[in-house]
Design goal:
It is a single chain. The protein is α+β, with helices and mostly antiparallel strands and 769 residues long. The relative contact order is 0.10.
Length: 769
């Protein structure tokens, strides 16, 4: 029998790391879609796509004829499934941080009573789309998935718990439908589990990326899914982002539940190419499988005592792990103690004689090398293809080539960093110095972001245990010490790699330094393996990685070019100031294509001073002379009545939109006045300052969606001396015809930047209340 040597053990560990890497990546791939003939109790993407095609035929934003057609389809389908169906129509005002939002929503609700209910499983998906596209992924296939999940559940007979379905309206307009449902207290948070379905792309695995409060009651249901994908780190990241889904309204109201989405392929997100033909059927299958498994488990579970606390959770190799957050700090402290004991033991045995502090400081070199590599590679890609910067989500159409290339270059950069340090710092000292940061981060995240602490706690615990064993039984052989220390890389691969795979599409290629820094955490834990391996192995491995990265980058540049099937993004709006009779073309493109430049030019200039409803993200503007530019119809506002009492004025405005107006905004200059409250269509808008981000004085306002064609009356309660300046803006889909602007070429599409394809007309500089 061959003698086990440190070198052979190191090779075995390396092969195990490679195997775990491949296995982990495999479990992150969506399954093959099931056909329409799949067994009735199973979820079938083939069956669901029939409903998706009915929902996503055309754009169907809130209040549109397309939305009404979708709503009728959903009512019929839910009735066919045996549900008690109702359409809840009401006008909603969403106040809080940011411009207030007002609009009439029509939520579709259906209930399927349980046989012996202890609570309710509420399946939620929004059915409205953005005006720019038919919204197949966001959110047509998810609406269809809910219908297919309900159909599969009904095959089991009556469920123990009640299963309700809520198809919300107005999600794209500011979560109006879900806000209305929650405000009306249409469900009991103490006995309801919410399963929300979303998408921010057209492909990728189904990710359970956000859980509700007291999630320990709902999380076990996810474990029944085949190859679930989830991490509580996503909860921590999502909390810091400005993104919201319908689930945000439920979570804020104290509901528990699970939020599912697939997020890859974001280059088509909110564009005309978000069609059923572009949606990955495997992503739909994975979403449906995950939600069906969770719904089936929860519909038969006792839901009367959901208030059980919060769990940390993560998946690896298709398995779900979750434990109480009360254990997170305990485990982190245990890891810190294990690290301190390992350092002490290494010093006592003579294996560690110094250099740990240098190793700890050297760790920043690895992170810096990864960050700098990603920054340079993305800068190079943008230099070659400037219009990559117009992709709002930061991802290209074929990002997998770039992601793999960046990881290969990042790996090579960290190995190069190690080559610089290995002659100055012993391997064990370097390793323990790096582990010191893991101990620090485990403790810090356990306190500030407990959902992320597992990433640092478990590699440190496993590494310390293995290194202690090597110090105990490996004698004074430094190579055995290196093999033992390398064991920390095994849990790191299993825990970090899924996070890297998920963060890439979440943040986009433009933010590649973030996932590459996480890759560095894996690579630095592999550094001890270089001890038993030949001295030239790191250099040769780095050279191979850099060569592979170059080949992948060049392939990506060739495969990911823009074409009619992969159109470049552009944004363009026509802004008309009716008071001054001045027109302006504006684009938020960082690098406007030639077609857009025909009317905007390249001169960068702000537009917020002339059109305060537009955000500062629109840097390009060119003025069109009033005589040559189109003069679209503007909304009108007149003061219908005004009264004064106790130093407070009440002003009633009559606002009439221009024909075809999609929505209106009304803002007030509150630098010398105060808007105490506004009321319209039976709802109230809070006063004060709700637009603190505004660069000018227009720091209060609201947006009105689905504007009545015959106009609307708005009552304002005001204080302050003199008249309050108001700014009224109407937004009409499409651009006015202009000889200066030919039809959009086939290789371009509208970008996801706000209302970039909207014809904006503004009036009201002279309106004073």
């Amino acid at each position: 029998m061959a003698r086990i040597t440190p070198r052979r053990a190191a090779v075995a560990v390396l092969l195990l790391v490679i195997t775990l890497t491949g296995w982990s990546l495999y479990t992150l791939q969506p399954p093959d879609p099931a056909s329409a003939s799949a067994p009735a109790r199973e979820f079938s993407a083939g069956r669901a796509m029939k409903d998706a095609e009915a929902v996503a035929r055309t754009p169907h934003p809130m209040g549109s004829a397309g939305a009404a057609q979708v709503r009728r389809h959903l009512e019929q389908r839910l009735a066919d499934l045996g549900g008690k169906v109702s359409v809840e129509t009401s006008t909603v005002a969403v106040n809080g941080e940011g411009t207030a939002k007002v609009g009439e929503v029509a939520n579709v609700f259906a209930s399927f009573p349980g046989s012996d209910p202890t609570g309710t499983v509420l399946l939620v998906a929004h059915y409205d789309s953005v005006p720019a596209g038919p919204g197949a992924a966001d959110n047509g296939v998810n609406v269809a998935a809910v219908l297919e999940v309900v159909r599969a559940l009904r095959e089991d007979g009556a469920t123990r718990n009640t299963v309700d379905v809520l198809f919300t309206d107005g999600e794209e307009s500011g979560l109006l439908g879900s806000h209305d449902f929650v405000v009306k207290k249409a469900a009991d948070p103490a006995k309801t589990v919410v399963l929300n379905l979303e998408a921010r792309g057209v492909s990728g695995p189904s990710i359970m990326f956000e859980s509700g409060r007291r999630n320990s009651g709902a999380l076990p249901a996810l474990g029944d899914a085949a190859r679930p994908v989830a991490t509580s780190l996503a909860d921590e990241i999502y909390r810091l982002m400005s993104n919201h889904t319908d689930f945000s309204e439920f979570k804020e109201a104290g509901f528990t539940g699970l939020n599912f989405a697939f997020i890859d392929g974001s280059a088509r997100y909110h564009t005309a190419s978000d069609t059923t033909a572009k949606v990955d059927r495997g992503s739909l299958q994975h979403q449906g499988d995950s939600v069906l498994a969770a719904a089936r488990a929860l519909s038969g579970a006792p839901l009367g005592s959901l208030d059980r606390g919060d769990d940390t959770y993560f998946t690896f190799l298709g398995l779900l792990v979750h434990y109480a957050q009360s254990l997170v700090l305990v485990l982190a402290l245990l890891a810190v103690l294990a690290y301190a004991a390992t350092v002490w033991y290494a010093r006592r045995t003579g294996a560690l004689s110094g250099g740990s502090i240098k190793g700890a400081l050297g760790f920043f070199g690895a992170l810096a090398a990864s960050w700098f590599t990603a920054f340079c590679l993305w800068s190079l890609a943008v230099l070659i293809r400037p219009q990559y910067e117009n992709l709002l989500m930061g991802d290209t159409y074929r990002p997998e080539w770039y992601r793999t290339a960046f990881i290969a270059f990042g790996f090579a950069a960290v190995l190069a960093w190690y080559q610089l340090l290995r002659r100055r710092i012993p391997v064990l000292a370097l390793t323990l110095g790096i582990w010191g940061w893991f101990a620090f981060l485990a403790l810090v995240t356990a306190v500030l972001a407990p959902g992320a602490a597992y990433l640092f706690t478990w590699p440190l615990l496993v590494g310390c245990a293995a290194l202690a064993a090597a110090l105990r039984w490996g004698g004074s052989d430094a190579q055995w010490h290196a093999v033992g220390a390398s064991a920390a890389a095994l849990p790191a691969v299993l825990l970090f790699l899924p996070v890297v795979a998920l963060i890439f599409p979440t943040l986009g290629i433009g933010a590649a330094p973030v996932p590459l820094i996480l890759c560095a955490f894996i690579t630095v834990l592999l550094v001890p393996l270089t001890g038993p391996l030949p001295r030239r192995a790191p250099a040769l491995t780095g050279l191979v990685a850099a060569t592979a990265g170059t080949a992948l980058l060049l392939t990506g540049m060739k495969a990911d070019g823009f074409a009619p099937e992969r159109p470049a993004h552009t944004s363009l709006a026509y802004l008309w100031d009716a008071d001054r009779s001045q027109g302006t073309w504006a684009s938020s493109d960082s690098s406007p294509p030639a077609w857009t430049r025909k009317v905007t030019g390249l001169e960068r200039g702000p537009v917020a001073d002339r059109f305060p409803t537009f955000p500062p993200v629109l840097p390009y503007a060119a003025h069109a002379p009033a005589a040559a530019g189109p003069a679209p119809a503007a909304p009108k506002a007149t003061v219908a009545a005004e009264t004064t009492a106790g130093g407070e004025r009440t002003v009633r405005l009559k606002v009439t939109p221009a024909p075809g107006t999609s929505y209106l905004t009304l803002m007030a200059d509150v630098s010398r006045h105060t808007v105490k409250e506004a009321s319209l269509l039976g709802v109230k808008v809070d006063g004060g300052v709700n637009r603190p981000f505004s660069e000018g004085p227009w720091k209060w306002g609201f947006v009105l969606w689905s504007v009545p064609a015959d106009g609307v009356e708005i009552t304002l309660r005001l204080s302050g001396e003199g008249k309050v300046p108001l700014w009224l803006t109407g937004y009409t889909p499409g651009l006015p015809q202009s000889p200066a602007l030919p039809p959009m070429p086939a290789h371009l599409t509208w970008s996801t930047h706000g209302d970039a394809l909207t014809n904006v007309t503004a009036a009201g500089r002279g309106i004073r209340a």
